[in-house]
TrEMBL record:
Pfam families: Ribul_P_3_epim. This is Ribulose-phosphate 3-epimerase. Binds 1 divalent metal cation per subunit. Substrate binds at S10, H68, G144, F145, G146, G147, D176, G177, G178, G198, S199. GO terms for molecular function: D-ribulose-phosphate 3-epimerase activity; metal ion binding. GO terms for cellular component: cytoplasm. Its EC number is 5.1.3.1. The keyword Transport does not apply. Keywords: Carbohydrate metabolism, Cobalt, Isomerase, Manganese, Metal-binding, Zinc. Signal peptide: none annotated. It catalyses: D-ribulose 5-phosphate = D-xylulose 5-phosphate. Belongs to the ribulose-phosphate 3-epimerase family.
Length: 221
């Protein structure tokens, strides 16, 4: 029997002028986590939001805030995001020359650490820190923008990560980018158990139907 799958809508595709209502709509629709994409214009070409927005979200939701840092030198901001109310902080291995130290810094704040892999990054890059993290985020698009097409080969990393994680049944493997009812089954079959979806959820008026269609697509896997 496969592990239960959690849905983490990405607010990247939400209406930022109505963020509280947008979060409430996906909460009512059954979202498990709220995925927050932080971009700095350096590590990725786009710029989004920072700790003040996370602090504002913290005041309007009890759902776990899953903060995905797509920023250069993330060590500078870990404490700020932790203080703002993040439940999880995920850093990119490509942005962390001292990855183990960065993971320890996240853990020291009381926040659950995660590591993310770009599509071109081999899974071996996180092999020796798997026991130190709570989550591995496998990017299924190149980071920086919502609404891009899913890259199918990226999910081939997931069975390797699961194998290396051994009996770490609690390790979350999250996929992020281009997830919709047609691609979610590929990720879940490979072993993903957290699905981030931005445009496939916030791009539709009926959020319950949007989440429901993804869950229905994976129901029999
Ligand atoms: O990290 C991200 C982009 O870098 C986003 O979380 C991701 O792209 C979600 O958007 P979509 O589901 O529309 O692809
Ligand atoms: Fe993301």
């Amino acid at each position: 029997m496969r592990r239960s799958v959690m849905m983490a809508p990405s607010i990247l595709s939400a209406d930022f002028a109505r963020l509280a209502e947008e979060v409430e709509s996906v909460t009512q629709a059954g979202a498990n986590w709220i995925h927050v994409d932080v971009m700095d214009g350096q590590f990725v070409p786009n710029i989004t939001i920072g700790p003040p927005v996370v602090a504002s979200l913290r005041r309007v939701t009890d759902l776990p805030l899953d903060v995905h840092l797509m920023i250069a030198n993330p060590d500078r901001y870990i404490e700020d995001f932790a203080r703002a109310g993040a439940d999880r902080i995920t850093v990119h291995v490509e942005a962390c020359p001292h990855l183990h130290r960065t993971i320890q810094s996240i853990r020291a704040t009381g926040v659950k650490p995660g590591v993310a892999l770009n599509p071109a990054t081999p899974p071996e890059m996180v092999r020796w820190v798997l026991e130190d993290v709570e989550l591995v985020l496998v990017m299924t698009v190149n980071p920086g923008f919502g609404g891009q097409a899913f890259l199918p080969r990226t999910v081939e990393k997931i069975p390797l990560l699961r194998e290396w994680a051994g009996d770490r049944d609690d390790l979350c493997v999250e996929v992020d980018g281009g997830i919709d009812p047609s691609t979610a089954p590929k990720a879940v079959k490979a072993g993903a158990d957290v699905l981030v979806a931005g445009s496939a959820v916030f791009g539709r008026a009926d959020r319950k139907k949007a989440l429901g269609d993804i869950l229905e697509a994976i129901a029999h896997i």
